[in-house]
Amino acid sequence: MTTFFHILWFKNLMFWKISLKQDFGTVIRNIGSFIVFGSFAVGAFYFSNFVTAYLLENVRIGLFLFHRFVGMLLFVFFITINLGNMVVSFSTLYRSPEVHFLLSSPVSYLDIFTIKFLDNFFYSSGTLFMVGFAVLLGYGVYFNHPWHFYLLMMFGVLVPFMFLAGCIAVVVLLLFMKLAAKINFRILIASIVLFYVSQVYIYFKVTSPINLVQEVMKYYPYVDLYFGSLDPAGAKILPNFWVSEILYFYVQKNFGAVTGYTALLVLSTAGVFVFSLAIANASFYSTWITSLSLKSLTVKRFQFKSSFFTFEKKSLLSPQTEVILKKEFWQFIREPSQWVHFIVMMALLVIFLSSVSTLNIKLESPELKAVVYLVVFIFNIFLINSIALRFGFPMISLEGSAYWSVRSAPISPERMYWVKFLVLVLFLGLLSLLIAFLSNIPYLFVRRVAAEESGILAYITPHIAVKQLAYFSIIITPVVAVTLASLNFGLGSVYSNFVEKNPIRIASSQGATMTFLLSVVYLVILLAAYYFPTLMMFNAEVKNLPVDWTALRIVFLVITLSSLCIAGITHILGVRSLRRDY
Amino acid sequence: MIELKNLTKNFGLFTAVDDVSLKIPSGEFFGFLGPNGAGKTTTIKMMTGLFTPTSGQIIINGFDVVKQPLEAKSSFGYIPDHPYLYDKLTGREFIYYVGGLYKMKKDELKESAERVIDLLELAGWVDNKTEDYSQGMRQRVTFAAAFVHNPRTIIIDEPMVGLDPRSARIVKDTLKQKAKEGVSIFMSTHILEMVDELCDRIGIINKGKMIFLDTKESLHVHKSKYDGKLESVFLELTKEIGEE
Prior knowledge:
The structure holds 2 protein chains of 2 kinds. Chain A is mainly alpha-helical. Helices cover 78% and strands 0% of the residues of chain A. Chain A has helices at 2-19, 24-58, 62-94, 97-103, 109-142, 147-180, 185-207, 209-217, 239-251, 255-301, 319-333, 336-356, 366-392, 404-407, 413-439, 441-444, 446-454, 465-494, 503-506, 510-542, 550-577. In chain A, helix 2 packs parallel to helix 20, helix 18 runs antiparallel to helix 20 (510-542) and helix 18 (465-494) runs parallel beside helix 21 (550-577). Chain A is globular and about 65 Å long. The two termini of chain A are 42 Å apart. Mean pLDDT of chain A is 85; it is low at 448-452 and 454-463. Chain B has a domain at 83-150. A 6-stranded mixed beta sheet of chain B has the order 6-7-8-3-9-10, sandwiched between helices. A 4-stranded antiparallel beta sheet of chain B has the order 2-1-4-5. In chain B, helix 3 (91-101) crosses helix 4 (106-119) and helix 4 crosses helix 5. The longest helix of chain B is centred in the last third of the chain and has 16 residues, at 165-180. Chain B is globular. The N and C termini of chain B lie far apart (38 Å). Chain A binds chain B through residues 299, 311-312, 314-315, 318-320, 322-324, 326-327, 330-331, 334-335, 400-402, 404-412, 501, 579, 581-582, and chain B through 45, 48-52, 69-74, 78, 80, 82, 84-89, 92-94, 96-106, 109-110, 129, 145.
């Protein structure tokens, strides 16, 4: 234990020495970070407060449904932390030079594991704690909760909840590495991907948000009551359900239930943490040894061949463009952390699109119609942003230590920048078009579906707004996708880190977090600008009034112009930063 | 041909390179010496466009590196002290990649790539990914990539790092041959014997200032003042004030 605290002390020392560096550049960067993070926290507070008030007072979904939606969001949050921790833990525990060094010194394997696991968890979760707390604050202020609510939520709920996701991630990783020595690596990866994808699918299939809304709304206006009998049994064993129960019962002042669920969460977290330590004690070293041979196993089994992309093959493109494109292709294909993560994200995307394309949009209230429409819209954008951040942000940094070969060659940094950006923007532009089209299917075919289901043409009015809004979505989504690609790629160049080799760590660095926060601010502004015209149009549709397009057209113009400005500014900054001393 | 005119580089208040001037004609093999932190790598990074000079001018083969960077870079090949490569590419792919950056036509590139692969004896492992290479193998691939476009000038920072005796011999012979062909070579190194063996002229930099710039023969004259060793001359020229 003495060694453990000794290492922890020096890690702490290094952290403070780096954080309190006093040179001009660092101070400016820290002030910039403080302003962005602070603004984001304030924004998250107001947003959470506004959404809570809006759903409970305007849309009147009731406390039970509201907290079930919170629970569903927490499920996505839990899976995100879990997957994120698993991928980052792999590089921290098995690829870090620090582990190599510590293994050659008289430090126990358990101490090394614990240090690196905690290091990894707090490194990748710092911003999430801040955002989580700001959201909690916005939520708590709406309900006028006392100060001890926040203490309980932060230390009794949020920290254990996130830590549980991290612990489960590391247990899965250790088991994965243990099995990797015996089972075909490809089958193992596919099984894990399939497992996670099926869990997400089953969760939303079982909890069925639309059915839940319909069932609860039968009891309107008594929708604040507890409808626990509607909860599927399987959902009750999940930590996100416990947290949503804690929040619901706190509002209802049922402190017995709050204490029970909090104790369940904390004890489960402690139990899984102890379990992870026990597994690590027994198998961390052996799995580390396996990780050394994993590279050769991966290399042999994943040899991808494509004569089209060989460097020897002639091309119609200019030699510089050609070699950059080919290099990007091979770097992506030959890096498992890139393509595995890509496949997982695409699988989640397919699940989302298949759920959305069968969405029931026959709702009465214009507010609810607007909310459902905007949630689908913003979720599309959020997905595109996640892909842009994960794969676009690290693109310049992945030049790595070999960037000297470009800088000393007769190619302008701008050319390399634009060729790389072209790859990202073409992919994201096409993907966003596809996502926008597929997710708007329920709106695009509203006439036919309504007519077929009702047998009469009752739903058809001369003023159908949804169809036009769907076309608008399909046009604006690629515009926003290009902006997000520019933002993530450009700021990825500004915050380039040529030392870090792991794309996942680059995409979760401080610069990436800042970029993510800026993208979220952009998305919130987008949502705010888009909300009132959408609501006006749904209002007109429900009341069978002529639809006024002026507001939507103005919003489209403003969004497009401001998006162009954002893209332009980030590209100027991105290109300029490539001219820095290397 | 390389010409440095009053070259200076400041990092904040620290001056890494201080008013350095020199001229290297075609076909000359120039050795650039200096203790650790003297400013050798900074000078080279400015010459290759990795750093921007604070003041002064760098002309390579008639082109100003700051004002005409692409033309200047087209005319030289660079071998850095730490030859990092793209891990996921093979050695051959890296050579083709660099050839493409120099806008070489595919047929010409193929022929030239085969030539440098033969020259540096890379054939046995050039199709493996560079992440599996030793330091010496990386160094040899970097040499091959620097030679592939037939540069008129070669700039090398510490060429012998990690090379085994056979590889070192291959590299030395190749460099000698290049100099004979009229290529000007600017080489920074710590290995005094190598300077003695290969270079026509020598520059010694200390604390950013050029403290010696003359022919190898002139340095030999200095040698006789001490114990006849080049090492002693170097130590005397670069010693700290407190050491006197």
